[in-house]
Amino acid sequence: MFSPAFMPTLCCNCFFESFLQMRQAEMRIEIISIGDELLIGQTLNTNAAWMGRKLLDIGVHVKWVTTVGDAQEELMQALRIAESRSDVILMTGGLGPTHDDVTKKIACDYFGASLVLNEDILAQVRERFQRRGYKMAAINEEQALVPDTAEIMKNDQGTAPGMIFKRKATTCFIMPGVPREMQGMMLKHVLPRLEEQLGGRAIRIKSLMTTGVPESTLFERLDNLHEIQQLVRVAFLPNLFGVKIRLMAIADSADAAESRLKHAEKLVRHKVGAEIFADEDINLEEAVAKLLIQRQQTLAVAESCTGGLVANLLTNIPGSSAFFDRGLVTYSNAAKTELLGVPRSTLDRHGAVSAETAQAMAQGVRRMAGTDYGVSITGIAGPGGGSLEKPVGLVYVACCDKNETVWEKHTFANDRLGNKERSAQAVLDVLRRQILKNNAG
User: Fold this and answer.
1) Torsions phi, psi of 185, nearest 5?
2) Domain closes at, from 278, 309, 328
3) Residue 400 has pLDDT above 80, yes or no
4) At what angle do helices 284-295 and 416-438 cross, to 10 degrees?
5) CATH number at residue 264
6) pLDDT mean over 39-54
7) How many other β-carbons are positioned within 10 Å of the β-carbon of residue 332?
8) Running DSSP on this structure, what letter comes out for residue 44?
9) Does residue 172 sit in helix, strand or coil?
10) Alpha carbons 68 and 75: distance in angstroms, whole number
11) Residue range 308-348, pLDDT digits in tens
12) Is residue 5 a part of any domain in this protein?
């Protein structure tokens, strides 16, 4: 029994061409992320990713993301380019009190503003230090110097205020680079203003999480998206374990958007089928946990090549004690025999990495634990240990219940950690399908 689950996905730009053409042109947004630490890879640009997701929630897409260092000319050039092509500029970083925090000064030079002392902000900064029992350094007083032509955004999470410049058709929001401070300003000041500018459109978004099918196959099943794209915007978002299908409906009223979204979801579910494991942004182990908890069923796990990864994923979920009984790592043949009762003859005849051993492991752990389900994984994670007959990446997973034992064979890559992760996802998907099968109707 072979499953194509977790095959490498094909990321074709043509898949998204019609989707991208549907983007509305009335708001062109550019993010400028500032900081040498971003350019050298010392810090990941999580701010841009977060902003992109939040902007998508209100129905707009970021058109450009620019990352620049702390040098004045580089930032001035980035501002010139952004202003020439964008309606909205979102800048983050460089608003702190130290010598390398130059964004405020450069913004003043660019927009022709002068710095003036804001007594309210100064009082806020002092109060924040006093509340925490710290002595405020003189350098922190500079954070109360703000551009005289900018609208100021209060920082509820820190000491550096944000600012808004407007020139001709472009609005520039400048925010701190500290994630929680930037997020607070986006939620309180920026997003509400952009939503108002959009004119009250109703937006509804749903994510359909899939596993076990490549992106290219999903695209084929959805018949090139034409029918669905008459209702919603569609995006395929692949990762190591599956593909998220994101549907976005935009209409003049909430009822109309909801109707479009429901119709589109029905079409997608009809064509994709059981590969959809959730209609919310959760991972596979969370979906499996929900199924077991809802049905008041229990699980035991026997792992070899994954070394306890499945048990770790499941017990990371709050409330896992309601369904998770035990997990055994039976790495050696002796452990498989002593702890799970795998017959020595099975190991001698078929080997530790085989369908027969995987089935015996799942049956053994279920029998020992007395649970509703027992699952198992055995394979060759690599990079060594493979052969022509059994190459690195060969994995067998099995699931046993009171009625039957099912198994799957997978052939992954020459990547030890990746193989462990894919194997864990594969056995979780086998378990998910078996739970649904047993509770069908």
Assistant:
1) -70, -40
2) 278
3) yes
4) 30
5) 3.30.70.2860
6) 94
7) 12
8) -
9) strand
10) 6
11) 999 999 999 999 999 999 999 999 999 999 999 999 999 99
12) no
